[in-house]
Specification:
The chain is built from seven helices and 16 strands. It has 531 residues and is an alpha+beta fold. A 16-stranded antiparallel beta barrel has the order 1-2-3-4-5-6-7-8-9-10-11-12-13-14-15-16. GO terms for molecular function: porin activity.
């Protein structure tokens, strides 16, 4: 029985339980007659001159009047709430309310009859959904884990041109073939509390023997999507596995057996190709093309970030060789955490993000040369970025982005600049000519919903780290421009086709005189399947 029905029946029941032997004075037949004969229902409790908001039953009486319209007063405009109720008065009140309930019931019955067909369809759909949910619950492999997958097919080719005839011919012969490669990424996201996340990334790819996977004269043409296991192609391997969990309301901690530096930054300060299915070259996905500050070091690490009202501060540490146990070996097994052989990076970042823009300052300490991946300096002996465990680099980047309120002809703008300073532990002549300072910059534009809703286009230009100062003096002649252009076709919700072009103006500038030219032009057709 509903609450208002209980309120109505209660006084009637109490009245019915009164002694049957009531005298004529108690019955007050005239008062009951006046009450039951009142044909005009009260529409507002304010019509009663003797009912006040301080009365204990004020709200209950107001509900009966305004919601159900089954309370009438005496002709004098009084309710006489403190007066004892007779059985006749209770019967009159109950009769008025039951008549109203009957009217509502009849109205509902007419509505049910009118929409009987639609209600039957809805019931069938609900029953079907319940059956499907039951089937999914019975067949799901985990109640705590979700799988997100992405498979990419890449058809690509490139060619070299310029005045260095011999070098150009060798490059075209070794890396000029058209190739067809794939990358598969499966991410298992597991949550145990609803706020934490255990992320496991399985990956496979076969880009290792192409310029798109870093096997060219430089690794500047490495694609963002390229991958291959350390032991060879077509092997599924654990790319990342790390755990993130909140600490209080504003802190998030990360601990990873294999985790990337970028996974532990609260802000990735760029809006360029943020969906991960459209960009071409990996170097321009780095804010400001700063391969020093945003080194993407991958290994054993931990970090923490704080966020509040748009502000964010992050600190983290990654040891690329942290899985190895020999701190003194001179070969690739050298390793350990927080020692000279760790291949470690430490990163600190402070930034602010709003709905349409963001800005961040990022600093990283790089322990050795294996951590700067994108630089034309890698091709020349005299332009090595650092020199192993005998040197370290301090890298700083300032990055920002802005996005328009509405998609269309106004693009989002991402820009950044980075500077890297390298010091050498031993002051020997063997390090003379090594790069002691380098810089980088990048500007990226992206148009969402370009020509067709869901499609997008992008253009980026910049310079990967190029030498600006050499140890021991000398004038560096390093300066390579990187640019790319692409357009994304959103074929379906889960299939994207992205043709793109890239151009490197002087990828081997560290080996060339200023009057010599050598450039690289490439094209790719990437198809991305998301599931």
């Amino acid at each position: 029985m509903k609450l208002f029905q209980q309120l109505l029946v209660a006084p009637a029941a109490l009245g019915l339980m009164a002694p049957m032997a009531a005298n004529a004075a108690d019955l007050d037949i005239k008062g009951v007659s006046d009450y039951s004969a009142s044909s005009e229902q009260v529409t507002s409790i304010s019509q009663f001159q003797d009912v006040y908001p301080t009365d204990w039953a004020y709200q209950a009486l107001s509900n009966l009047i305004e919601r159900y319209g089954c309370v009438a007063g005496y002709p004098s405009g009084s309710y006489l709430g403190n007066r004892a109720m007779t059985r006749f008065e209770a019967a009159a009140l109950l009769n008025a309310c039951l008549d109203r309930i009957t009217e509502v019931t009849d109205e509902l019955r007419r509505l049910l009859n009118e929409f009987e067909q639609e209600l039957a369809i809805l019931k069938g759909r609900v029953d079907g959904l319940e059956a499907r949910v039951g089937e999914l619950e019975a067949t799901q492999f985990s109640t705590t884990t979700k799988l997100v997958g992405q498979a990419s097919f890449v058809l690509g080719a490139n060619s070299f041109a310029g005045s260095l005839d011999d070098v150009r011919d060798i490059y075209n012969k070794e890396w000029g073939a058209t190739s067809f490669n794939y990358d598969l990424e499966l991410v298992l996201n597991t949550s145990f509390t609803g706020k934490d996340s255990l992320s496991t990334t399985l990956r496979a790819g076969n880009f290792g023997k192409t310029v798109f996977g870093g096997d060219g004269p430089t690794n500047l043409s490495t694609l963002e999507v390229a991958s291959e296991s350390e032991t060879g192609a077509d092997l599924v391997y654990i790319d990342k596995i790390f755990y993130q969990f909140p600490i209080g309301e504003n802190f998030t901690a990360t601990l990873g057996a294999i985790v990337g530096q970028e996974d532990m930054l609260a802000i990735w300060p760029t809006a360029y190709a943020s969906d991960g299915s459209s960009t071409v070259l990996d170097v321009v996905t780095l804010p400001g093309a700063s391969a020093g500050a945003f080194n993407k070091n991958l290994g054993q690490g931990a970090g923490i970030w704080w966020e509040n009202n748009g502000w964010a501060i992050s600190v983290n540490y990654v040891a690329a060789n942290g899985r190895n146990g020999d701190p003194n070996s001179n070969d690739y097994l050298c390793g350990g955490i927080a020692n000279d052989c760790s291949a470690g990076t430490g990163t600190a970042q402070i930034g602010y993000i709003d709905e349409q823009w963001g800005v961040a300052a990022t600093y990283s300490y790089l322990q050795n040369n294996d951590l700067v991946l994108y630089s034309s300096m890698d091709v020349a002996d005299s332009y090595g970025f650092t020199s192993g465990t005998d040197s370290y680099t301090n890298a700083f980047a300032l990055s920002a982005y802005w996005m328009p309120q509405e998609n269309g002809w106004i693009p989002s703008v991402s820009l950044g600049w980075g500077i890297n300073s390298t010091s050498f532990e031993d002051d020997h002549d063997v390090y003379k000519g090594e790069v002691s300072q380098s810089q980088s910059w990048m500007v990226g534009l992206e148009w969402n919903d370009l020509f067709v809703e869901g499609n997008a286009g992008g253009f980026a230009i910049g310079q990967a780290p190029f030498a600006t100062r050499l140890k021991g003096g000398g004038t560096p002649h390093d300066g390579n421009y990187v640019s790319e252009l692409w357009y994304k076709f959103q074929v379906t919700n889960n299939i994207v086709v992205t043709p793109g072009l890239f151009y490197l103006s002087r990828p081997a500038s560290g080996l060339m005189d200023t009057d010599e030219t050598l450039n690289q032009l490439g094209g790719v057709l990437r198809t991305t399947f998301s599931f």
